[in-house]
Design goal:
This protein is mainly alpha-helical. The chain has helices at about 1-10, 15-20, 25-50, 55-60, 65-75, 85-95, 105-125, 140-155, 155-160, 170-185, 190-205, 215-230, 255-290, 295-310, 320-330, 335-350, 360-370, 380-385, 390-405, 410-430, 445-450, 470-485, 505-520, 530-540, 540-545, 555-570; strands at about 80, 315-320, 430-435, 445, 455-465, 490-495, 520-525, 550.
Length: about 600
């Protein structure tokens, strides 16, 4: 029975919580949370569709079935999926070179893009490659999201002022045109509606954070728009007629040429959407004490996008705002997302006429409020302080993403490349310490602490993996140390910091050991980690050098060397008792702290 239950969970993860709905308290909590999320979901979805250069009602299509599928087949009980500002912007940017925004062709391409994103995520989840998102380092995501937030915010300037801006030009040119045209020809009623929406949302969010402040702004501005005849009498822009009824089932028409055009953008959106999703799910899981499966979540998101595409959905991902609201509203299971999707269905069937007079300026204000939280400077400063290379990658990704707009995928691809290069650069030249005994009994860097060294014994610690990138650096540092010690007889390599040895690293070890032996210097190893020792044993290096050249502790390695040194070259200091690597008051100590 347990095996059957496990297989059911693998295929249908919602079976783990479906039975809990028999509890009236849990059912009631999910119903209330679902209704609460719907109040924010509907206006946000329409705003995100506008951001993606789609008719507003396509946001409702993305808020209906896709979030339900994501909740049923994902691993998080509180994650709420749907359209989000970042993915919407990337959708608009990806399609801009191939179709006129808002055209039938643009809409068709957006649906195809949704399907491609779903297929990519589904395949990655099926082959359990969710780990690939780790290549999107935190500095890259920081730089990209900050740049995207700036692009999203500035893209709404003309909507807020009701100004007409000529399309074309680079991102910076378009922003300049928006600012100058908006300042020169603002539409008064539009500016007033936008200002009212901002005031209502800011005040309500601070005064009553749990209230549906987005919905309140929508209801108020829509009522004013209807009463004043904002569209006809005042010349303002409104949502207009929204087709009633459910989205029809349409299989996206994908040609090889279109697939090739959108592939890079689809991969980028798939990864960015999943990074955002899994980050949100994990953040909430730390509070709910729930275990999140990255590959399971990837499958859920992929299936949601794939199914959504045949019902004319735009690409979706997890929403931080709505997921947090869902959790705070008391949701217990994924059924709350099912409730929210059902209420969107009710809206599509019977309530769409209520949104006719909704001003587009209000949707622009909603977008700017949503992306305000994406702009985060402090994390970039912290990344810079933690590691300058990471800070530089974050800043570079930010600048490049802005420069390449609307081709946002270029910025993030270059950012990933810079991040990988910075990692390789750091690991190619790890810290190498020449060790000697400190008065407190520990082994420290002799140069840093001004410690006396032994003339006949060199103790070196390499703080990094020995692979093709760092092997040459390791050899250079060893030879550099040896060249400064003309009376050197024994080299002891503390391998505690070496976690991995590849073929190039092993070859360099052989070259160094043989070269030193020809010069009359014996090499010993201490504290070699098990995985490294197994690699050296498989290649025959351990047998070739001799088991007696490998020791478990520093003291044992030094004891062996002192014994040989006393037989070979008696030390004038009276080693080992008076050797700088030893301390008479600490005889026989085996486990030193390095």
């Amino acid at each position: 029975m347990k095996i059957v239950d496990f297989k059911l969970f693998q295929l249908f993860p919602f079976t783990t919580w479906m039975g809990e709905l028999k509890d009236p308290k849990i059912l009631r909590a999910d119903l209330i949370a679902g209704i609460t999320v719907t109040m924010v979901l509907i206006p946000q979805a329409m705003a995100h569709a506008q951001l993606a250069s789609l008719p507003p009602y396509y946001g409702l299509y993305a808020a209906f079935l896709s979030p339900i599928i994501a909740a049923l087949f994902g691993s998080s009980r509180h994650l709420t999926s749907g359209s989000v500002a970042l993915v919407s912007l990337m959708t608009a940017a990806a399609l801009q070179p191939f179709a006129t925004p808002g055209s039938a062709e643009h809409i068709a391409y957006a649906v195809v893009l949704t399907m491609m994103v779903g297929i990519i995520q589904l395949i990655l989840g099926m082959v359990r490659l969710g780990v690939l998102v780790n290549f999107l380092s935190h500095p890259v995501v920081l730089g990209f999201t900050n740049a995207a937030a700036v692009i999203i915010g500035t893209s709404q300037i003309d909507m807020l002022f009701g100004a007409e801006v000529a399309p074309g030009g680079s991102y910076f040119v378009r922003v300049w045109n928006m600012l100058t045209d908006s300042a020169a020809n603002p539409h008064g009623p539009t500016v007033m509606i936008a200002a009212l929406a901002f005031v209502v949302m800011i005040v309500m969010k601070r005064w009553k954070p749990q209230s549906p402040w987005v919905l309140i702004a929508v209801v108020l501005t829509t009522t004013i728009s209807w009463y004043t005849d904002f569209e006809s009498a005042l010349g303002g822009k409104v949502v207009g007629r929204i087709p009633e009824g459910m989205p029809s089932f349409v299989m996206p028409d994908v040609s090889f040429g279109l697939f090739a055009k959108l592939f890079t953008a689809a991969v980028t959106i798939a990864f960015i959407a999943f990074v955002e999703t899994i980050s949100i799910a994990k953040a909430i899981a730390t509070q709910s004490k729930q275990r999140i499966g990255a590959n399971r979540e990837l499958l859920g998101q992929g299936l949601a996008n794939l199914v959504g595409s045949v019902f004319q959905s735009m690409p979706i991902s997890g929403s931080f705002v709505r997921s947090s609201l869902n959790f705070r509203a008391g949701a217990k299971t994924g059924f709350s997302s099912v409730v929210a999707g059902c209420f969107v269905m009710v809206t599509l069937l019977w309530l769409t006429p209520l949104f006719y007079h909704l001003p587009l300026a209000t949707l622009a204000a909603i977008i700017m409020m949503a992306v305000a939280g994406l702009i985060q400077v402090d994390p970039i400063v912290r990344a810079w302080r933690a590691q300058k290379h990471d800070g530089m990658v974050a800043v570079a990704t930010f600048i490049l993403t802005l420069s390449f707009a609307p081709h946002l995928d270029y910025g993030i691809l270059i950012g990933v490349s810079l991040s990988l290069f910075a990692y390789l650069y750091r690991t190619m030249m790890p810290h190498v310490a020449a060790l000697s005994r400190h008065p407190d009994g520990t082994f420290r860097d002799s140069q840093t602490f001004g410690l006396q060294s032994c003339d006949h014994i060199a103790l070196i610690r390499f703080d990094g993996s020995l692979y093709f990138g760092s092997a040459g650096y390791f050899e250079d540092k060893v030879l550099e140390r040896v060249s400064k010690m003309p009376d050197l007889k024994y080299l002891v390599i503390d391998a505690e910091g070496i976690n991995h040895v590849d073929a190039t690293g092993e070859e360099i070890l052989i070259h160094v050991v043989h070269g030193l032996k020809e010069s009359g210097i014996e090499t010993y190893f201490t504290r070699v980690k098990e995985q490294v020792r197994e690699s050296l044993e498989r290649t025959g290096f351990t047998e070739e050098l001799g088991e007696d050249h490998f020791h478990r502790s520093l003291y044992r390695a030094l004891s062996a060397v002192w014994e040989l040194l006393d037989q070979d070259v008696p030390c004038s200091r009276g080693c080992p008792k008076n050797c700088p690597l030893n301390q008479a008051e600490l005889p026989g100590v085996v486990n030193y702290r390095v």
